[in-house]
Specification:
This protein has 425 residues and is α+β, with helices and mostly antiparallel strands. It has 16 helices and eleven strands. The strands form two sheets. The protein has a six-stranded mixed sheet, with helices on both faces. Strands 3, 5, 6, 7 and 8 form a five-stranded mixed sheet that branches.
Length: 425
Amino acid sequence: MLSRLRRAPDDAPDDAFPQADIGRSLFAPRDLLAEALAGMLQRPARSALTMLGTVLGVGAFVAVLGLTATASSQIDDRFNVLSATEVTVEDVAHEQDKFAGEGFPDDATDRVERLNGVRHAGVLWMVKPRRSAAELAVTAAPVGGAGGEALSVVAAAPAALRAAEPRLSQGRLYDDFHAGARQRVTVISSGIAARLGITTLETEPAIFIGGQPFTVIGIVEDVQRQPDVLLSVLVPQTTAVEMWGRPAEGARMLIATDLGAARQVAAEAPTALRPDHPEYLKAVPPPDPKSLRTSVTSDLEQLFLLLAGVCLVIGAVGIANTTLVAVLERTGEIGLRRALGAQKRHVTAQFLAESGTLGAFGGLIGTSLGTLAVLVVALVRDWTPVMHPVTLATAPLIGLATGVVAGIYPARRAASVQPADALRG
């Protein structure tokens, strides 16, 4: 490996002898790599433990970027299917004119559902007590039974329930017949049903709102839109008007549209509902999907890349510590090499190659494990895995760079060993 070497005094610089007399000592890249691999294989267990920090850091780096890209793709799909097809219209009539009545007409559902692109549209509002909160106390038994639950009561048109796209666990939703007949029926979430002790609808259970019985005809497991309704007891809007009066304020309309029609519907809905006073109604279109995706992706990347950076720092400290210990253990070997003519740069290159090789192997293993983690998560969640080629190409280089940086101080320490002192020790 080393050719045409001639020993120099211990304190002589590397270029103490003219090159014309002795030439230059050579350390071929292949020999350098062979020495690095030999140093690793002499202590395989220690080398494996040393690589662990780099493996974790690079693996976290790949997994974070891969899962972020995959999750962003799923966010896009979910946004397109749900958020991009949702429009909310708010009643702001009292803000425009304190003497104005309700912003929504009685036939609000029919007017909006005639617009192109509208699938379902219905008005809903939170019922307010006229005198005291006891008027809306929700109990599982008549007056004198169990204490009232602190639950809100929401009046919702049947079309508003359909627009929320609920998933039922039992029973059914109330429909236009129930609303037209002003029947005292209700739909509740599974959480509220558990609080009220309702486990089945086969016995036609009833709950009591302000002492008035309402038959529970449906239990909702989840909703795609307006998740706040899961915290409320839902009753037909016509029944609510008959019992507690019309809403003074706070009514809103939930509109489910076809994909791509939401913004157009939002622009047309106020005029379709109130051609005389469209300013009484405020339509809220879905947010811009690009800004939403960018915000969510940025938050995920910043959080998890910070964790990956911590792992890389820990890996670098591990490599530096192990390499420094190796320098101390191999002082005699280093002194012998220097005595045979190896220059400081050769010793430095040897130990940098060892630490760099440890980092590179750690980077390759971490890249493989990170990619595997992305594939497993995507498989379990039934997602389509997304991995950018730049990430896969960069990750092993990050491991290599981590190893090289971690080995700088130990390599310089090894190069400073004096042959005479090393051989005497």
